[in-house]
């Protein structure tokens, strides 16, 4: 018996922190969670895996109070919390992160992390018990304002403790966040926003830590870094419930694994047994494809290893520059071009002389690690960020000074990072929002029906609130919403983020269909380099705001130079 098995056995003798019995939740008649029951012991790490739409995130939302259950029991240390509001659940020692990441962009890193300690404050919340009474809850807020203006000795002691805890949390990610503490969260890379969110959730040392896909949007080396941090929390005795798609991370971290499909638990046990369970394999990776178009050999290889955690000691090779930009495609005028674009955030030179081409009816991948400049390039194309110099061309037109609305009307659409649905609006209302620049009501209505034919799952959920759907369903809605504007080109920011392997394959096939069936050009901003290149025609690799490598996707797919430019390493000079 190894140490992991010893821990799994011994942890079951610890007190039960979370007890869930026959938990159920439906949305518009669809069973999202169906009779889920399990126990989570003190110091135990349980991971929930399963395909998108299996009920994983809904289970987390029910436990944390963001959704009220239809029926069932949720107990924390023997006290019922089922149906309680989020603040009340938090007061009982439950902290969480979110599937798509939620930080306050207008607050600094330190300020975001500090918010997680709010529930532990007592001197600064003298009347916090009144918050549950709507008529007098303003007295609690007034008390907090008074304590912030007139600081007594107990308040000062709490502030000192808060500063120590913020220092400790930042120190966990010191190489990533240590120099960014005073920076506003909106300036951070996606991975650093996730790190900030994890630090905020942990600062109060919660009784139960809920992590909903904490490594979504991170590359392999970043995932390995987060795994190391979570293993450290586990060694300290933290109780963790984790939702995650990356099976290697789940296996390395978890004492036990719950596999879900269709809202039900289909397997429970130690990680190795669950991952090899035939029902789990069929649900998570997909059953027989039947009439589905088979993936290419290169794409199959990529999908098979997309969840692996890479050894951080692998040697990196030198980056070389690609030569013939766009090769044969250069003969025709590109549909979209950036020419020598420079973009700044204050003194930070985010894009440095960036030039890219997107031909008509082609898929182009823009790759790179976090903070490499990918999202800034997307914002520049969409008109959300103006370059200091350089030009953006759409066909033969210079659109550098055009508004975002004008760009959308001309045929440029977007599928943004983390989907950005309107969560309180229905599927159909979200679809209609994609046609806001159009005035032909009858044609818009016909297009909505066509979207339901292209994405049948959306038709089944047309009256369901978008915020209650799974990540994969929201991604399909984001695609359909973009198509409602009749685009000639769609810019997609991290379209595979947070999706299970089966859903990743579905998304890649949908992207290829946009090109092959509709003739739409696609620019994919993606961290999963091999995934994006497996369906692309051409690729560019960004590093520190510069194009470090470019070429035909087939040439780049297995080129070791991509690894260095993507993960970082010896810097090279561009031609």
In short:
GO terms for molecular function: ATP binding; ATP hydrolysis activity; branched-chain amino acid transmembrane transporter activity. This protein is of the alpha/beta class and 575 residues long.
Description:
The chain has 575 residues and is α/β, with parallel strands linked by helices. It has 4 domains: 1-103 and 189-287, Rossmann fold (3-Layer(aba) Sandwich); 104-187; 288-411 and 487-575, Rossmann fold; 426-485, no CATH class. The chain contains 23 helices and 20 strands. The strands form 4 sheets. Strands 6-7-8-3-9-10 form a 6-stranded mixed β-sheet, with helices on both faces. Strands 16-17-18-13-19-20 form a 6-stranded mixed β-sheet, sandwiched between helices. Strands 2-1-4-5 form a 4-stranded antiparallel β-sheet, covered by helices on one side. Strand 4 (71-76) and strand 5 (79-80) form a beta hairpin. Helix 4 (109-115) runs parallel beside helix 8 (190-202), helix 6 packs across helix 8 and helix 16 (427-433) runs parallel beside helix 19. The radius of gyration is 24 Å and the shape is globular. Belongs to the ABC transporter superfamily. Its EC number is 3.6.3.17. This is Putative ABC transporter ATP-binding protein. Residues 18-287, 336-569 form the ABC transporter domain. One of its GO terms (biological process) is L-amino acid transport.
